């Protein structure tokens, strides 16, 4: 397919076509200056509705903090399922996560309870409990290549670290990580191979996705049954035992399956892409690597600034306008889809001084929207931050020098994630 060229003015901007990831950041500068709100005619939830791309920090922050005024598109799907009178398990093309949302968290109140009772103890504020296992996984991966002086960082560290971590958190055997990785790739297929801002798969791709995921549900059910018999200190065991106070009952196997589905889909990609972009930033600036190695208190602001500069999830079409709105002088009718371009908001010059510079002393360094914000902020943000912090502490302990190796093309994967396919690095062991 013909690849999208680098745009020169806003009418040439295409954020979703083949090769678009190569020009995203050039496009954001143009949109901020010329068209901070872009209409996509006929690309709403129905052909008679439009979609709108938002790129300004203030607009996106306002949207994500107001659930009632800008309801999530997922809410509409849940209401449609409820009104159909059918069980979600009986409906085609409804994945396990959506099925569990219908019964576990269909409202704002239940969404909050779900997070506080079921996920926060494991991937939210309670993620600190995993510090030891993350450290062990990081060291084991580094052991595999530290004697070589060279590494393809994506496949040897950035990808397997969150895969192994999530397997351990959930309670899956590490020997099953390759299978979990394949299922994880199937889960995010629409975000990589889907077309347009809605990440739509073709019917053939949809059939392929569900065919590849067919074994995942059976696998999780086997693990759930095992954990019910022999509970251990892991998240699946916890889900089999917990009394969910919000609904005054225990969880069903299908509901646990849905929670696990959400953990896998959200727990792998963001951390992989964040670590890869951070490694590239450090390899391109030896002085930055040296500063972090000498002063580990700088790791946290480095991680936050890197995620702001190179947002792992560039944007998603996740909200609907419940009433007529105006953004940047552009009228947006009720019922329109909003594509929230997190990455553009994170380099908005009206919000961040010198936005394309990584500043370790930037005030309020966590203000970026890489994990969204408001009541639907990413539930696994704490775990991802912990993984990144431990990864760089161990890499800085064990490496004295990091640089780009010959042969890098920095080719990006398609889709909505900032995913570099390979990153070849050279290093000196400490």
Describe the fold and architecture.
The chain has 430 residues and is of the alpha+beta class. The chain has one domain (36-429): Cytochrome p450 (Orthogonal Bundle). The protein is 49% helix and 10% strand. The chain is built from 18 helices and 11 strands. A 4-stranded mixed β-sheet has the order 1-2-9-6, with helices on one face. A hairpin with a 4-residue loop joins β4 (243-244) and β5. α6 packs across α18 and α14 packs across α16 (299-309). It is globular, with a radius of gyration of 22 Å.
Produce a short descriptive summary.
The protein has helices at 24-34, 57-64, 73-84, 96-104, 108-123, 131-145, 153-158, 160-170, 177-187, 189-193, 203-229, 235-241, 253-267, 269-284, 286-294, 299-309, 342-345, 381-398, and strands at residues 37-40, 51-54, 150-152, 243-244, 249-250, 316-320, 325-327, 330-332, 337-340, 399-404, 424-429.
- Rg over CA atoms, rounded to whole Å, is 22 Å
Write out the CATH superfamily name.
Cytochrome P450
Show unreliable segments: none
Total DSSP helices: 18
N-end to C-end Cα span: 46 Å
| Broad structural category | alpha+beta
Strand content: 5-15%
**What's the CATH class label?**
Mainly Alpha
Count every beta strand, where a strand is a DSSP E run of 2 or more residues. Answer: 11
CATH topology: Cytochrome p450
Overall geometry: globular
The number of domains is: 1
Helix content: 40-55%
The helix/strand series, from N terminus to C terminus, equals HEEHHHHHEHHHHHHEEHHHHEEEEHHEE
**CATH architectural arrangement:** Orthogonal Bundle
- Strand adjacency order, main sheet: 1-2-9-6
């Amino acid at each position: 397919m013909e690849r999208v060229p680098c745009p020169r003015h806003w009418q040439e901007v295409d954020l979703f076509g083949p090769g678009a990831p190569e020009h995203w950041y050039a496009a954001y500068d143009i949109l901020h200056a010329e068209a901070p709100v872009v209409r996509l005619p006929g690309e709403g939830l129905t052909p008679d509705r439009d979609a709108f791309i938002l790129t300004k920090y203030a607009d996106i922050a306002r949207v994500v903090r107001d659930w009632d005024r800008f309801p999530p598109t997922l809410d509409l799907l849940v209401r449609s399922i409820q009104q159909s009178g059918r069980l979600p398990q009986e409906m085609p093309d409804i994945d396990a996560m959506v099925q569990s949302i219908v019964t576990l968290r269909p409202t704002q109140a239940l969404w909050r309870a779900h997070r506080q009772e079921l996920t926060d103890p494991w991937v939210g504020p309670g993620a600190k409990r995993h510090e030891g296992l993350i450290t062990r996984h990081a060291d084991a991966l580094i052991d595999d290549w530290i004697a070589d002086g060279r590494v393809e960082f994506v496949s040897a560290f950035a990808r397997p670290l969150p895969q192994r971590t999530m397997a351990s958190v959930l309670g899956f055997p590490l020997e099953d990580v390759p299978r979990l990785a394949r299922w994880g790739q199937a889960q995010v297929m629409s975000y990589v191979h889907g077309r347009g801002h809605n990440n739509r798969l073709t019917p053939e791709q949809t059939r392929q996705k569900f065919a590849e995921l067919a074994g995942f549900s059976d696998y999780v059910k086997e693990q759930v049954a095992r954990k019910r018999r022999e509970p251990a200190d892991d998240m699946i065991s916890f889900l089999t035992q917990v009394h969910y106070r919000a609904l005054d009952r225990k969880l069903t196997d299908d509901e646990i399956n849905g929670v696990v589905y959400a953990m896998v889909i959200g727990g792998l990609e963001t951390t992989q892409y964040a670590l890869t972009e951070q490694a590239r930033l450090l390899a391109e600036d030896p002085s930055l690597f040296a500063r972090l190695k000498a002063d580990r208190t700088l790791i946290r602001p480095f991680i936050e600034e890197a995620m702001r500069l190179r947002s792992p999830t560039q944007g998603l079409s996740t909200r609907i306008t419940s009433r007529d709105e105006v953004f940047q002088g552009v009228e947006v009718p009720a019922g329109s889809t909003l594509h929230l371009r997190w990455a553009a908001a994170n380099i908005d010059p009206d919000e961040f001084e010198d936005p394309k510079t990584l500043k370790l002393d930037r005030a309020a360094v966590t203000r970026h929207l890489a994990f969204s914000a408001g009541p639907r902020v990413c539930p696994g943000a704490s775990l991802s931050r912990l993984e990144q912090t431990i990864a760089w502490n161990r890499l800085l302990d064990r490496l004295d020098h990091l640089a780009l190796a010959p042969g890098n093309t920095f080719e990006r994967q398609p889709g909505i994630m900032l995913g570099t396919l390979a990153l070849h690095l050279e290093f000196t062991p400490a």
